[in-house]
């Protein structure tokens, strides 16, 4: 069904009624949030990128025209539209235009390739995809056209052409998607607003249905906690489709507060520092490897004036304590650790927490209504202060993935708690330290790799009889991936380069290509039988 209602697992009615009564779910929509800010601050700068600066009035006019153009293309309310754009102003216009017509953005990443996009298009039954023709030398229009040929619902490719060029044949030029303003369909705040992606642990991508009510609460609460105001200039440094720069407090926080969104085309210190200087950026979010690059660059000395930076957030993967202590002094900003997930729960260290807490913990849940449990393998609570698996539920944590009963059975308890897959410890002050991870999800500097997904692709290689993908420790990324391989023909084992090229040709994002490949004669004995991948991964990780 590419149109019609978007089903999802709702919160129990009693909880939903509480959230509404307490105003936690405010009953507004993304489009109304934008319209309110436009009405309040039409001349304030809304969006700055490498070559554009738009006021809120400019942004609103573009959103209006684009929204009308999308309707004219036949895109209807409740249909899904994939967005695979780099960090540029059109990203913001596109997302808000989709909100304006009550269509659902599907937040793809520029690094996604054919395997991911095809699976996402099929799972979401998307009717259109928005891309920029070339980005970092890659032809996204060709990729989108290929995906569109493979997925019947996906009939329209909208393309931002390269500078000075036309959009390629078979695509609709982004600039032509414009129409006269009209009555737009109103969205229902309690319905799904978009589909976010899970950094999951399974072979197929999991789509995360987020409602206006729940997500806007997380954005507004993040704003309060992070001190976001109309003076905030939030820079999206990570790919903006990620949940972190989207919402914690991210670009949506900036719009809700009437502040400014800055978008840097590259996270590298030289480019990003220049953007900080130009847009007087006050806040941004980084993953630990990037925080290290920036810290080292600033420690060596930069010619750019980055003194406007007030808050630097680090999240997505565990930030080493040693690095955490250096970030604030080097960048001249307050560090905030963020431990969040696209499924919901976001924890922050508070801006006025003592350094000891900020530098060594990943903070505490942002809402007093977030509930967490730390449990053992039988879902029994562990003693206070000891390590265990983190479960959570609350006003902005989903109760189920989109159209995925298998994943739901695995990732949620019978009474609706989300199994985060993280191993944590909670100190007496309620601050969480992330100690480990779900065995099958590798965290490569904030980019999540599903061992199962990569294994499935590798098993298609004719020279591979069996394979187990595990995390290996890495000083820079925290973790890297290693594929332990059994050769189909022991006299002719596959070469690392061949395997990496094979995975790339299968259409997987670059961050999922195994960093290391090791051919083994046999997998280690685990003592629990050959079928336990979990034990096998443990034994191979230990090597
Ligand atoms: C250790 N592990 C962390 C941290 C996330 C804000 C910030 C990050 C994300 C994100 C997000 C971590 N230390 N500080 O959505 O809104 C790991 C955990 C978690 C998984 C979620 C946000 N911060 N992690 O990273 O959906 O394992 O969201 O369960 O991509 O990242 O990944 P993702």
Bound ions, cofactors and other small molecules, one mention each: ligand J2J
Strand content range: 15-25%
Compute the number of helices: 17
Overall 3D form: globular
What is the CATH C level class of the largest domain, in words?
Alpha Beta
By DSSP, the count of extended strands is 27
Number of domains: 2
Structural class, from helix and strand content? alpha/beta
CATH topology-level name of the largest domain: Rossmann fold
> Average pLDDT, to the nearest integer?
95
CATH superfamily of the largest domain: ANL, N-terminal domain
Record the strand order, biggest sheet: 2-1-13-12-14-15-16-17-18
The Rg value, from CA coordinates, equals 23 Å
Helix content: 25-40%
User: How is the biggest beta sheet arranged?
Assistant: 9 strands, mixed
CATH architecture classification name of the largest domain = 3-Layer(aba) Sandwich
The rounded distance between the terminal residues' Cα atoms is 47 Å
Oligomer: single chain
What does this structure look like?
The structure is a single chain. It contains 17 helices and 27 strands. It folds into two domains: 13-422, ANL, N-terminal domain (Rossmann fold, 3-Layer(aba) Sandwich); 441-542, GMP Synthetase, Chain A, domain 3 (2-Layer Sandwich), CATH 3.30.300.30. The longest helix has 17 residues, at 56-72. The mean pLDDT is 95. With 543 residues, it is α/β, with parallel strands linked by helices. A nine-stranded mixed sheet has the order 2-1-13-12-14-15-16-17-18, with helices on both faces. Helix 5 crosses helix 6, helix 7 (212-226) crosses helix 9 (250-257) and helix 11 (288-300) crosses helix 12. Bound molecules: ligand J2J. Ligand J2J binds at residues 199, 243-244, 247-248, 315-318, 337-342, 346, 362, 420-422, 434, 437, 443, 448.
């Amino acid at each position: 069904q590419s149109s019609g209602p978007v089903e999802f697992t709702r919160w129990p009615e009693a909880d939903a009624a509480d959230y509404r009564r307490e105003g936690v779910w405010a009953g507004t929509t993304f489009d109304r949030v934008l319209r309110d800010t436009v009405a309040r601050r039409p001349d304030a700068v809304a969006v700055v990128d490498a070559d554009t600066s738009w006021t809120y009035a400019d942004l609103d006019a573009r959103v209006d025209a684009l929204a009308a153009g999308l309707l004219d293309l036949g895109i209807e309310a409740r249909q899904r539209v994939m967005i695979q754009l780099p960090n540029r102003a059109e990203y913001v216009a596109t997302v808000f235009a989709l909100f304006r017509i009550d269509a659902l953005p599907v937040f793809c990443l520029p690094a996604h390739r054919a395997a991911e996009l095809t699976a996402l298009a099929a799972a979401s039954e998307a009717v259109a995809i928005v891309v920029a023709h070339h980005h970092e030398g890659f032809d996204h229009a060709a990729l989108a056209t290929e995906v569109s040929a493979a997925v019947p619902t996906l009939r329209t490719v909208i393309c931002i052409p390269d500078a000075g060029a036309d959009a390629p044949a078979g695509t609709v030029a982004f600039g032509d998607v414009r129409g006269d303003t009209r009555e737009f369909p109103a969205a229902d705040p309690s319905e799904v607003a978009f589909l976010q992606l899970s950094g999951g642990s399974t072979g197929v991508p999991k789509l995360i249905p987020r409602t206006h009510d729940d997500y806007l609460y997380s954005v507004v609460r993040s704003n309060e906690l992070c001190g976001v105001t109309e003076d905030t200039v939030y820079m999206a440094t990570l790919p903006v489709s990620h949940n972190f720069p989207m919402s914690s407090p991210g670009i949506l926080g900036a719009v809700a507060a009437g502040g400014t969104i800055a978008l840097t085309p590259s996270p590298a210190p030289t480019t990003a520092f220049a953007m900080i200087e130009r847009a007087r950026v006050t806040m941004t979010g980084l993953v630990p490897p990037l925080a290290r690059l920036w810290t080292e660059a600033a420690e060596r000395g930069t010619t750019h004036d980055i003194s406007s930076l007030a808050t630097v957030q680090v999240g997505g993967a565990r930030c080493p304590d040693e690095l955490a202590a250096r970030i604030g002094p080097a960048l001249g900003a307050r560090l905030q650790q963020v431990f969040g997930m696209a499924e919901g729960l976001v924890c922050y260290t508070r801006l006025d927490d003592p350094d000891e807490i900020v530098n060594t913990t990943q903070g505490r849940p942002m809402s007093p209504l977030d509930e967490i449990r730390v449990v053992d393998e039988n879902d029994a609570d562990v003693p206070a202060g000891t390590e265990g698996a983190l479960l959570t539920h609350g006003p902005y944590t989903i109760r189920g993935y989109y159209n995925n009963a298998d994943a739901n059975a695995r990732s949620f308890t019978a009474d609706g708690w989300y199994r985060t897959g993280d191993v944590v410890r909670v100190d007496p002050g309620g601050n969480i330290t992330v100690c480990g991870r779900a065995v099958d999800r590798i965290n490569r500097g904030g980019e999540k790799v599903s061992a199962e997904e990569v294994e499935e692709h590798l098993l298609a290689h004719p020279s591979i009889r069996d394979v187990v993908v595990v995390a290996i420790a890495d000083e820079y990324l925290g973790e890297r991936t290693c594929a332990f391989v059994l050769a189909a023909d022991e006299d002719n084992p596959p070469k690392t380069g061949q395997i990496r090229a094979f995975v790339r040709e299968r259409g997987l994002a670059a961050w999922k290509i195994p960093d290391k490949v090791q051919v083994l004669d046999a997998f280690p004995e685990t003592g629990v039988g050959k079928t336990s991948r979990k034990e096998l991964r443990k034994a191979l990780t230990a090597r």
